[in-house]
Prior knowledge:
Elements: E1 3-6, E2 9-12, H1 23-27, E3 30-38, E4 41-42, H2 45-59, H3 68-78, E5 87-94, E6 112-119, H4 125-130, E7 132-138, H5 153-164, E8 169-174, E9 177-180, E10 185-190, E11 193-196, H6 207-218, E12 223-225, E13 228-229, E14 238-243, E15 247-254, E16 257-258, H7 266-291
Parallel strand pairs: 7-8, 7-15, 11-12
Antiparallel strand pairs: 1-2, 1-6, 3-4, 3-5, 5-6, 8-9, 9-13, 10-11, 10-14, 14-15, 15-16
Helix pairs in contact: 6-7
Bound molecules: N-(5'-phosphopyridoxyl)-D-alanine (PDD).
Amino acid sequence: MSTVYLNGEFIPKDEAKISVDDRGFLFADGVYEVTPFYEGVPFYLDRHLARLRRGLSWMRIDYDTEGLPDIHRRLLELNELEDADTAMVYLQITRGVAPRSHPFPRDPVPPTVYAFAKTWQRPSQEDWDRGFAAVTMPDRRWTRVDIKTIALLPNVLAYQAAVDAGATDAIQVRDGVALEGAHNNLFGVLDGTVVTHPVTNVILPGITRSVVLELARRNGIPAEERPILVEELADAEELFFTGTTNEVRPTVRVDGRPVADGKVGPVTRALAAAFAREVRKVKEAAVGVSAR
Ligand code: PDD
Protein backbone atom coordinates (compact mmCIF):
# COMPACT_ATOMS: atom_id res chain seq x y z
CA MET A 1 0.00 0.00 0.00
CA SER A 2 1.46 3.31 -1.00
CA THR A 3 1.54 6.29 1.31
CA VAL A 4 0.04 9.52 0.05
CA TYR A 5 -0.08 13.08 1.37
CA LEU A 6 -3.48 14.63 2.02
CA ASN A 7 -4.07 17.93 3.80
CA GLY A 8 -1.12 17.81 6.18
CA GLU A 9 -0.97 14.04 6.73
CA PHE A 10 0.94 11.12 5.28
CA ILE A 11 -1.55 8.23 5.20
CA PRO A 12 -2.10 4.89 3.45
CA LYS A 13 -3.71 5.51 0.07
CA ASP A 14 -6.90 3.59 0.88
CA GLU A 15 -7.50 5.85 3.88
CA ALA A 16 -7.31 9.02 1.80
CA LYS A 17 -10.81 10.44 1.37
CA ILE A 18 -11.96 13.56 -0.47
CA SER A 19 -15.33 15.22 -0.06
CA VAL A 20 -17.87 15.04 -2.89
CA ASP A 21 -18.10 18.82 -2.39
CA ASP A 22 -14.45 19.26 -3.33
CA ARG A 23 -14.29 21.91 -6.04
CA GLY A 24 -11.67 19.85 -7.84
CA PHE A 25 -14.25 17.06 -8.19
CA LEU A 26 -17.17 19.36 -9.06
CA PHE A 27 -15.50 22.02 -11.24
CA ALA A 28 -11.92 20.86 -11.97
CA ASP A 29 -11.11 23.97 -9.92
CA GLY A 30 -7.48 23.29 -9.16
CA VAL A 31 -3.90 23.08 -10.37
CA TYR A 32 -1.30 20.31 -10.41
CA GLU A 33 2.40 19.61 -10.90
CA VAL A 34 4.43 16.55 -11.81
CA THR A 35 8.07 16.67 -10.71
CA PRO A 36 10.61 14.02 -11.72
CA PHE A 37 13.08 12.44 -9.29
CA TYR A 38 16.20 10.56 -10.30
CA GLU A 39 17.53 8.27 -7.53
CA GLY A 40 15.66 10.43 -5.06
CA VAL A 41 17.03 13.72 -6.40
CA PRO A 42 14.46 16.23 -7.64
CA PHE A 43 15.09 17.59 -11.14
CA TYR A 44 14.48 21.36 -11.38
CA LEU A 45 11.94 21.31 -8.53
CA ASP A 46 12.37 25.09 -8.18
CA ARG A 47 11.00 25.60 -11.70
CA HIS A 48 8.07 23.25 -11.09
CA LEU A 49 7.19 25.11 -7.90
CA ALA A 50 7.54 28.51 -9.60
CA ARG A 51 5.07 27.36 -12.30
CA LEU A 52 2.73 26.06 -9.59
CA ARG A 53 2.88 29.38 -7.69
CA ARG A 54 2.08 31.26 -10.87
CA GLY A 55 -0.96 29.01 -11.45
CA LEU A 56 -2.14 29.34 -7.84
CA SER A 57 -1.82 33.09 -7.99
CA TRP A 58 -3.71 33.34 -11.31
CA MET A 59 -6.44 31.03 -9.93
CA ARG A 60 -6.51 33.09 -6.70
CA ILE A 61 -5.95 30.01 -4.54
CA ASP A 62 -4.19 30.99 -1.35
CA TYR A 63 -1.57 28.36 -0.48
CA ASP A 64 1.94 28.70 0.90
CA THR A 65 4.27 26.44 -1.12
CA GLU A 66 7.17 26.69 1.34
CA GLY A 67 6.62 23.20 2.80
CA LEU A 68 6.35 21.45 -0.56
CA PRO A 69 10.01 20.41 -1.07
CA ASP A 70 9.83 18.61 2.28
CA ILE A 71 6.51 16.93 1.40
CA HIS A 72 8.04 15.73 -1.89
CA ARG A 73 11.12 14.35 -0.11
CA ARG A 74 9.05 12.59 2.60
CA LEU A 75 6.78 10.99 0.00
CA LEU A 76 9.81 9.56 -1.80
CA GLU A 77 11.17 8.20 1.50
CA LEU A 78 7.88 6.77 2.80
CA ASN A 79 7.34 4.94 -0.51
CA GLU A 80 10.95 3.72 -0.63
CA LEU A 81 11.61 5.40 -3.93
CA GLU A 82 14.85 7.20 -3.03
CA ASP A 83 16.85 4.67 -5.05
CA ALA A 84 14.44 4.40 -7.99
CA ASP A 85 16.10 5.35 -11.29
CA THR A 86 13.04 7.31 -12.33
CA ALA A 87 10.22 8.42 -10.03
CA MET A 88 7.86 11.34 -9.81
CA VAL A 89 5.63 13.21 -7.40
CA TYR A 90 2.16 14.23 -8.54
CA LEU A 91 0.76 17.16 -6.56
CA GLN A 92 -2.71 18.63 -6.86
CA ILE A 93 -4.17 21.65 -5.08
CA THR A 94 -7.85 22.48 -5.41
CA ARG A 95 -9.81 25.47 -4.13
CA GLY A 96 -11.21 23.28 -1.35
CA VAL A 97 -14.57 22.01 -0.14
CA ALA A 98 -17.80 24.02 -0.29
CA PRO A 99 -21.43 23.35 -1.33
CA ARG A 100 -21.65 23.48 -5.13
CA SER A 101 -21.93 27.07 -6.38
CA HIS A 102 -19.91 28.52 -9.23
CA PRO A 103 -18.35 31.56 -7.53
CA PHE A 104 -15.53 31.12 -5.05
CA PRO A 105 -16.74 30.26 -1.51
CA ARG A 106 -17.67 33.53 0.24
CA ASP A 107 -15.97 32.45 3.46
CA PRO A 108 -12.52 31.22 2.57
CA VAL A 109 -11.97 27.45 2.85
CA PRO A 110 -8.57 25.73 3.03
CA PRO A 111 -7.37 24.31 -0.29
CA THR A 112 -7.29 20.53 -0.67
CA VAL A 113 -3.69 19.39 -1.09
CA TYR A 114 -3.03 15.88 -2.36
CA ALA A 115 0.21 14.27 -3.50
CA PHE A 116 1.52 10.83 -4.34
CA ALA A 117 4.82 9.36 -5.52
CA LYS A 118 5.39 6.60 -8.04
CA THR A 119 7.93 5.29 -10.50
CA TRP A 120 7.79 5.81 -14.23
CA GLN A 121 9.51 3.83 -16.94
CA ARG A 122 11.64 4.88 -19.85
CA PRO A 123 11.04 3.07 -23.13
CA SER A 124 13.64 0.41 -23.91
CA GLN A 125 16.66 1.73 -25.82
CA GLU A 126 15.51 -0.40 -28.75
CA ASP A 127 12.06 1.25 -28.83
CA TRP A 128 13.61 4.71 -28.41
CA ASP A 129 16.03 4.04 -31.27
CA ARG A 130 13.13 2.99 -33.49
CA GLY A 131 11.25 6.22 -32.65
CA PHE A 132 7.55 6.85 -32.08
CA ALA A 133 4.47 7.80 -34.08
CA ALA A 134 2.27 10.86 -33.64
CA VAL A 135 -1.03 12.02 -35.09
CA THR A 136 -2.23 15.58 -35.60
CA MET A 137 -5.59 16.70 -34.25
CA PRO A 138 -7.46 19.92 -33.57
CA ASP A 139 -6.62 21.55 -30.25
CA ARG A 140 -9.91 21.66 -28.35
CA ARG A 141 -8.52 23.22 -25.19
CA TRP A 142 -9.26 26.65 -23.75
CA THR A 143 -7.02 29.67 -24.26
CA ARG A 144 -5.14 29.56 -20.92
CA VAL A 145 -3.36 26.25 -21.29
CA ASP A 146 -0.26 27.92 -19.83
CA ILE A 147 -1.96 27.44 -16.44
CA LYS A 148 -1.53 23.82 -15.38
CA THR A 149 -5.11 23.19 -14.29
CA ILE A 150 -6.57 19.76 -13.58
CA ALA A 151 -9.21 20.34 -16.30
CA LEU A 152 -7.59 17.91 -18.72
CA LEU A 153 -10.51 16.46 -20.65
CA PRO A 154 -9.30 17.70 -24.07
CA ASN A 155 -5.83 16.35 -23.29
CA VAL A 156 -7.31 13.00 -22.25
CA LEU A 157 -9.35 12.78 -25.47
CA ALA A 158 -6.36 13.79 -27.61
CA TYR A 159 -4.13 11.18 -25.97
CA GLN A 160 -6.83 8.50 -26.37
CA ALA A 161 -7.24 9.41 -30.05
CA ALA A 162 -3.48 8.88 -30.48
CA VAL A 163 -3.70 5.51 -28.72
CA ASP A 164 -6.72 4.53 -30.88
CA ALA A 165 -4.67 5.40 -33.97
CA GLY A 166 -1.82 3.18 -32.78
CA ALA A 167 0.38 6.23 -32.10
CA THR A 168 2.19 7.44 -29.00
CA ASP A 169 1.66 11.19 -29.20
CA ALA A 170 -0.94 13.72 -30.30
CA ILE A 171 0.14 16.95 -31.99
CA GLN A 172 -2.47 19.57 -31.12
CA VAL A 173 -3.11 22.00 -33.96
CA ARG A 174 -4.74 25.42 -33.59
CA ASP A 175 -5.06 28.00 -36.38
CA GLY A 176 -2.67 26.03 -38.57
CA VAL A 177 0.02 25.86 -35.88
CA ALA A 178 1.39 22.61 -34.43
CA LEU A 179 1.47 23.65 -30.77
CA GLU A 180 2.40 20.79 -28.45
CA GLY A 181 1.40 17.29 -27.42
CA ALA A 182 -1.39 16.08 -25.13
CA HIS A 183 1.05 16.06 -22.20
CA ASN A 184 4.36 17.18 -23.66
CA ASN A 185 5.97 19.93 -25.75
CA LEU A 186 6.76 19.61 -29.45
CA PHE A 187 10.11 20.42 -31.05
CA GLY A 188 11.07 20.36 -34.72
CA VAL A 189 14.40 20.55 -36.48
CA LEU A 190 13.81 22.82 -39.45
CA ASP A 191 16.66 23.93 -41.72
CA GLY A 192 19.11 22.77 -39.06
CA THR A 193 17.51 24.86 -36.31
CA VAL A 194 15.72 23.46 -33.29
CA VAL A 195 12.29 25.11 -33.22
CA THR A 196 9.58 25.09 -30.56
CA HIS A 197 6.54 27.27 -29.91
CA PRO A 198 7.24 30.35 -27.77
CA VAL A 199 5.82 30.51 -24.25
CA THR A 200 2.38 32.08 -24.66
CA ASN A 201 -1.16 31.27 -23.47
CA VAL A 202 -1.54 28.43 -26.04
CA ILE A 203 1.11 26.04 -24.70
CA LEU A 204 2.09 24.76 -21.29
CA PRO A 205 5.54 26.16 -20.47
CA GLY A 206 7.20 22.78 -19.94
CA ILE A 207 10.13 22.58 -17.57
CA THR A 208 11.75 19.90 -19.74
CA ARG A 209 11.23 22.24 -22.73
CA SER A 210 13.11 25.02 -20.92
CA VAL A 211 15.98 22.70 -19.97
CA VAL A 212 16.26 21.27 -23.51
CA LEU A 213 16.33 24.77 -25.04
CA GLU A 214 19.14 25.74 -22.68
CA LEU A 215 21.02 22.53 -23.50
CA ALA A 216 20.69 23.22 -27.23
CA ARG A 217 22.13 26.69 -26.83
CA ARG A 218 24.90 25.48 -24.52
CA ASN A 219 25.84 22.77 -27.03
CA GLY A 220 26.03 25.16 -29.97
CA ILE A 221 22.82 23.84 -31.60
CA PRO A 222 20.88 26.76 -33.11
CA ALA A 223 17.50 27.11 -31.42
CA GLU A 224 14.56 29.36 -32.06
CA GLU A 225 11.20 29.87 -30.33
CA ARG A 226 8.60 30.42 -33.01
CA PRO A 227 5.35 28.74 -34.10
CA ILE A 228 5.71 25.59 -36.27
CA LEU A 229 3.12 25.64 -39.05
CA VAL A 230 1.36 22.35 -39.57
CA GLU A 231 2.55 22.34 -43.22
CA GLU A 232 6.14 22.52 -41.98
CA LEU A 233 5.78 19.12 -40.30
CA ALA A 234 6.04 17.48 -43.73
CA ASP A 235 9.46 19.13 -44.32
CA ALA A 236 10.82 18.69 -40.80
CA GLU A 237 14.24 17.06 -40.63
CA GLU A 238 13.40 15.77 -37.14
CA LEU A 239 10.60 15.97 -34.60
CA PHE A 240 10.61 15.17 -30.91
CA PHE A 241 8.60 15.75 -27.74
CA THR A 242 9.80 16.78 -24.29
CA GLY A 243 8.11 16.21 -20.95
CA THR A 244 8.71 15.11 -17.40
CA THR A 245 8.11 11.41 -18.01
CA ASN A 246 9.18 11.52 -21.69
CA GLU A 247 12.51 13.36 -21.38
CA VAL A 248 13.42 13.68 -25.09
CA ARG A 249 11.19 11.40 -27.21
CA PRO A 250 11.76 11.09 -30.96
CA THR A 251 8.86 11.12 -33.43
CA VAL A 252 9.53 9.35 -36.71
CA ARG A 253 6.01 9.19 -38.20
CA VAL A 254 3.23 11.77 -38.31
CA ASP A 255 -0.24 10.76 -39.53
CA GLY A 256 1.29 7.61 -41.04
CA ARG A 257 3.99 9.45 -43.05
CA PRO A 258 7.68 9.20 -42.17
CA VAL A 259 9.46 12.26 -40.78
CA ALA A 260 12.38 12.76 -43.22
CA ASP A 261 13.88 9.26 -43.67
CA GLY A 262 11.78 7.86 -40.79
CA LYS A 263 14.84 7.43 -38.55
CA VAL A 264 15.72 9.14 -35.26
CA GLY A 265 17.87 12.13 -36.24
CA PRO A 266 21.26 13.35 -34.99
CA VAL A 267 19.97 16.51 -33.27
CA THR A 268 17.39 14.53 -31.28
CA ARG A 269 20.15 12.08 -30.31
CA ALA A 270 22.52 14.89 -29.31
CA LEU A 271 19.86 16.57 -27.16
CA ALA A 272 18.80 13.28 -25.54
CA ALA A 273 22.45 12.65 -24.66
CA ALA A 274 22.83 16.20 -23.31
CA PHE A 275 19.66 15.68 -21.26
CA ALA A 276 21.04 12.44 -19.78
CA ARG A 277 24.26 14.31 -18.88
CA GLU A 278 22.21 17.06 -17.21
CA VAL A 279 20.33 14.46 -15.14
CA ARG A 280 23.70 12.98 -14.08
CA LYS A 281 25.04 16.42 -13.19
CA VAL A 282 22.01 17.28 -11.03
CA LYS A 283 22.29 13.90 -9.24
CA GLU A 284 26.02 14.33 -8.63
CA ALA A 285 25.55 17.88 -7.34
CA ALA A 286 22.95 16.62 -4.84
CA VAL A 287 25.25 13.83 -3.64
CA GLY A 288 28.01 16.41 -3.24
CA VAL A 289 25.75 18.56 -1.07
CA SER A 290 24.65 15.71 1.23
CA ALA A 291 28.26 14.48 1.61
CA ARG A 292 29.40 17.87 2.93
N1 PDD B 1 2.39 16.99 -18.43
N2 PDD B 1 2.40 20.28 -22.31
C1 PDD B 1 1.36 19.78 -21.62
C2 PDD B 1 -0.02 20.02 -22.13
C3 PDD B 1 1.58 19.06 -20.43
O1 PDD B 1 0.55 18.56 -19.74
C4 PDD B 1 2.92 18.84 -19.99
C5 PDD B 1 3.22 18.10 -18.72
C6 PDD B 1 3.98 19.37 -20.76
C7 PDD B 1 5.43 19.17 -20.40
O2 PDD B 1 5.78 19.85 -19.23
P1 PDD B 1 6.98 19.36 -18.31
O3 PDD B 1 8.19 19.30 -19.15
O4 PDD B 1 7.08 20.41 -17.26
O5 PDD B 1 6.59 18.01 -17.76
C8 PDD B 1 3.67 20.09 -21.90
C9 PDD B 1 2.46 16.32 -17.16
C10 PDD B 1 3.76 15.68 -16.91
C11 PDD B 1 1.27 15.36 -17.00
O6 PDD B 1 0.15 15.84 -17.16
O7 PDD B 1 1.46 14.20 -16.70
